[in-house]
Amino acid sequence: MDKIIRIGTRDSELAMWQAKTVQHQLEYLGYKTKLISIKATGDLVLNKPIYEMGITGVFTRNLDIAMLNDEIDIAVHSLKDVPTILPEGIVQAAVLKRGPSEDVLIFKDNEEFMAQKDAIIATGSLRRKAQWLQRYPSHKVVGLRGNVNTRLQKIKDNEDWNGGIFAAAGLKRIGIEPENLVTLSWMIPAPAQGAIMISALEKDEFVREACGKLNHEETEICTNVERKFLNLLEGGCSAPIGALCYINDEEITLKGIILSEDGTSKKEINKTVKLRKHIYLAQDAAEFIIDRGGKKLMSNFDKFEKKFTLCSTKKLTVSQSKLVHEDIKVDDSDFIKVRFSRIPQPVLKKELENVIITSKNTVESLETNFSLPELQFKNIYCVGRRTKALVEKKIGPVKLTAKNAKKLAPLVLKDIKSKEVTYFTSSLRLDELPSFLEENDVVVNEVEAYKTMLSPLKVEDDTDGILFYSPSTVQSYMKGNKAIGIAFCIGETTALEAKKYFDEVKVASLPTVESVIELANLHFAKN
């Protein structure tokens, strides 16, 4: 334990309290540490609400950069401030036991104003603003930025303000316990509010192992569900979305809400499932809200009018969304839903000699059904470089890979020594690969790893193009829409399906989501 773990943190009183808490726990375990404070964008820009700053990670970005530049080894964050997609190379190393998750109101004189028509409440959170206006529509909500002490002082100095909204955890951690405080038990907090997260470089095994000892499993489970719910509703950490997950008697409950910015409309859900069957809790809750009009409640923070509109038949990650040209607006939704199948245990009763894996969904399904030591495969054949990367990270080395199943088939035939192969596949798949092998006297044992279900959504008629990532996304789209605009396809097999319906079809140079986005950018940027 000679290595000194450099702990990065913002320099506010609350951030330092959190970092010192992590420092004390690591040092108690025998690790050497050092605190390094770094200014965050959210601390430097205090003249506008967070949701108007136009970027995600305003309190975490500078710490991420410092970590990637080897200036710090870990960063300590309030988890509610962390974007749901972390930068490449950075991972969540631990989540500490959660503190209070509630929001509280600190008022100046008395509580009578809450029953009156006119009142002024201060908060820098769009979520708090929307929920307050939903409950008290005649009140006025004003912006409030700065650290906890600065915000308290602003409320005290402004004679017109009746009070301000704060996170209970932040007040408690720096020892502020005002008497004029009301717990807002009706207000659903920000996803992961009250939890402290430690991030680290994925490649730094020493640091990840050290921080892993501080992880609180129940908090990790609940905050993961809340943050996935937020991610699926397309929200950054400042969007008007609330989520709270808790565990009780082997059951896990998720309360979620999404509101219009002015609070006049809302959609909410309260769903409970068995604890060990919660893998789809966030997804099911998000779909429930979206299906009932929740997507229309998302505030549009884009300040620029777009020239073109595209539909992506797959949800884009934050990093992928940033690749879209500034003239293009992308409406993205998953037109394909995936459910992992229950794979019979006898399938792996012995080491499989030849295995074909064609998607990352297969890898995740195998990981769900079996422990990693059970996944002993002698020869693994893959489709796609990203599937290959995930297989080699989770299971083992890949012998051969190809861009698509059609190109992989002859490579497998030429390489295999025995005439038998296990093909982990989806409930929907093309016949090219298994048909080719069977025609050449290879026994193909197909195992359904996951179910692919078509989930078409209605697309506006003025859309300029559709981004497709598999033949099944084309099929799903066509079940609920007509062929409009240009079809931008991830590969030849997807393009072949699209050509059945679309007059103009373009194919990406590489079989990646990023290449499809680049293809669309190049087309519309020159027009």
UniProtKB/TrEMBL annotation:
Entry EC number(s): 2.5.1.61
Is Cell membrane a UniProt keyword of this protein? Answer: no
Q: Does the keyword Transferase apply?
A: yes
**What this chain does, per the record?**
Tetrapolymerization of the monopyrrole PBG into the hydroxymethylbilane pre-uroporphyrinogen in several discrete steps.
Which pathway does it operate in? Porphyrin-containing compound metabolism; protoporphyrin-IX biosynthesis; coproporphyrinogen-III from 5-aminolevulinate: step 2/4
Key words, A-Z? Porphyrin biosynthesis, Transferase
Provide the reaction this enzyme catalyses.
4 porphobilinogen + H2O = hydroxymethylbilane + 4 NH4(+)
Enumerate the spans annotated as Porphobilinogen deaminase N-terminal domain. 5-208
User: What gene does the UniProt entry assign to this protein?
Assistant: hemC
Q: Where does the Porphobilinogen deaminase C-terminal domain start and stop, copy by copy?
A: 222-287
Q: What is its quaternary makeup?
A: Monomer.
Question: What cofactor does this one take?
Answer: dipyrromethane
Q: What class of enzyme is it?
A: transferase
Question: What Pfam families is this protein classified in?
Answer: HEM4 (PF02602), Porphobil_deam (PF01379), Porphobil_deamC (PF03900)
Q: Which InterPro entries match?
A: 4pyrrol_syn_uPrphyn_synt_sf, 4pyrrol_synth_uPrphyn_synth, HemC, Porphobilin_deaminase_cofac_BS, Porphobilin_deaminase_N, Porphobilinogen_deaminase_C, Porphobilinogen_deaminase_C_sf
Gene source species: Aureibaculum flavum
Gene Ontology molecular-function annotations: hydroxymethylbilane synthase activity
Residue span(s) of domain Tetrapyrrole biosynthesis uroporphyrinogen III synthase: 351-517
Task: Tell me the protein's name.
Answer: Hydroxymethylbilane synthase
Q: Which residues form a coiled coil?
A: none
Protein family (similarity comment): Belongs to the HMBS family.
